[in-house]
Write a structure and sequence with these properties.
Length: about 180
């Protein structure tokens, strides 16, 4: 489940402008400017990180506490990134994380100015992750919310985030896809 924290950063950033979609047929092409976008996301996490008990059992108690605190802290940590939105990405439905066969996506609603998506994934370790996302945009601004629930056995961690983004420039410069900012 550690990769879910990294995936969350990518989904939140890329999702702010390029929300996850089930199929291009379900998606209305978003009315967004092409080029470089800056996106920030902030939120909070609650509940224990859903790390398998067998993994935690192998760690000394002090290291276990450190890992749990680190994962939960990372899930609620503010994120800032730059994203290059191209005509090709828009024409493909602005999909991210599209190679995951273990995820089921459903576009709940889609228009030129907003989108709601639900996604559920099964993890190889036996855990489950679900996302509910809503994004609204004007051509040069985006806002959104993401609710994510990660479960493994009896452990469940929820994360709620808000997203804010704005168009910066028609030229993406050195940014080819997504670049995390410090």
């Amino acid at each position: 489940m550690h990769r879910n924290v990294r995936r969350l950063a990518a989904v939140l950033g890329a999702g702010a402008v390029v929300a996850l979609v089930a199929q291009a047929a379900d998606l209305v092409k978003p009315n967004v400017k092409l080029g470089l976008w800056e996106i920030t996301s902030a939120g909070k996490a609650s509940g224990p990180p859903p790390i398998p008990d067998e993994v935690l059992a192998r760690l000394p108690p002090d290291r276990r506490a450190q890992v749990l605190a680190s994962v939960q802290g990372a899930a609620g940590k503010p994120i800032a990134l730059r994203q290059c939105v191209t005509a090709e990405k828009v024409s493909q439905g602005l999909q991210v994380d599209r190679a995951r066969a273990d995820c089921q996506r459903k576009v709940v609603s889609s228009s030129a100015s907003e989108m709601s998506v639900h996604q559920e994934c099964s993890e190889p370790s036996g855990g489950k992750v679900s996302f509910d996302m809503h994004f609204a945009w004007a051509s040069d601004h985006v806002t959104g919310t993401v609710h994510m629930v990660m479960t493994h056995g009896a452990q469940t961690m929820s994360t709620d985030r808000t997203i804010e983004g704005h168009w910066v420039s028609a030229d993406c410069g050195a940014v080819k896809d997504v670049e995390m900012l410090k």
